Batch of 3 targets.
Target 1
Amino acid sequence: QVQLVESGGGLVQAGGSLRLSCAASGRTFSRSSMGWFRQAPGKEREFVASISWRSSITDYGESVKGRFAINRDNAKNTVYLQMNSLKPEDTAVYYCAAGSIGRTPANYAYWGQGTQVTVSS
């Protein structure tokens, strides 16, 4: 099993940056692909980024490509999401997930509780 705890969310002005962290516990973290998803009120959960367990494969949603970057440190059992050039439409609860690499929530068996990101205009 993998337990996930996100941190780093908050309120930021448009154009600013935030870095989200997801700390994992459990023996299988280093063998798990990791993903970030987000969900705004009244909307479906949206794929943001994913990274394979060796960091050899990364993938990004179209709306964040070129602005966000995902990376992981297996020695620290942590995955990060660097978010730059933030826009008001990036406002959402951001979730970390562990499982098989892919763009759909069904690929991921384990989820964190989420962290709120709010971007003001």
Note: The mean pLDDT is 95.
Target 2
Amino acid sequence: QVQLVESGGGLVQAGESLRLSCAASGSIVSINSMAWYRQAPGKQRELVASITSATSTNYADSVKGRFTISRDNAKNTVYLQMNFLKPEDTAVYYCYCFARTSDLLLRPYWGQGTQVTVSS
């Protein structure tokens, strides 16, 4: 009922930047929170950053000061600006949202993931 399409991943060198985008589409009535998670090989999926509909944000300690999450409610899109990337930021990044659809139910939705690789 809600599709999340991520873009912007790739291979960069340490210290460089990337910007991830995630557009939500489908029978959306409203989107509460949106977030980015990541999962590195052999590790559990972890929250990177989240943003509420009121644009209150939360960040993992490991990315504070380097990453910025934002959203465009008119486009149902969330962004993650990643600066000063480190090799330990290498992971598959997943977009997440908690949305109300036309059946008026709130559900979590996930994107398919986009690979971010940071070389040293």
Note: The longest strand covers residues 28-39.
Target 3
Amino acid sequence: QVQLVESGGGLVQAGGSLRLSCVASGFTFDRYVMNWFRQAPGKEREFVARIGWIGGSTYYADSAKGRFTISRDDAKNTVYLQMNSLKPEDTAVYYCAARRPPEGYAYWGQGTQVTVSS
């Protein structure tokens, strides 16, 4: 049974930090590119960051560059998103997703709510 379980969300003041975690099970984690997406109320889901499955190369949306850091621990089947200098516009439900290129996103988590107060 495939599962992606996010945690670490919560309420934080602007300028604060949160570290999201996503624990995977049921598939070969270290063969997948891991991604974070987010969806704010009334908006479409948007890409935040990804980390590769060979060498761990990373890529960020412009909104995340310089503030967020994605990392992975293949021994723990876990991907992280360290979020610093949070802004109210970062408020959203954050999802992790697994992809094995060239295929699409195969697995999604249920999401974790991040709320940044001004």
Note: DSSP finds no helices and eleven strands in the chain.
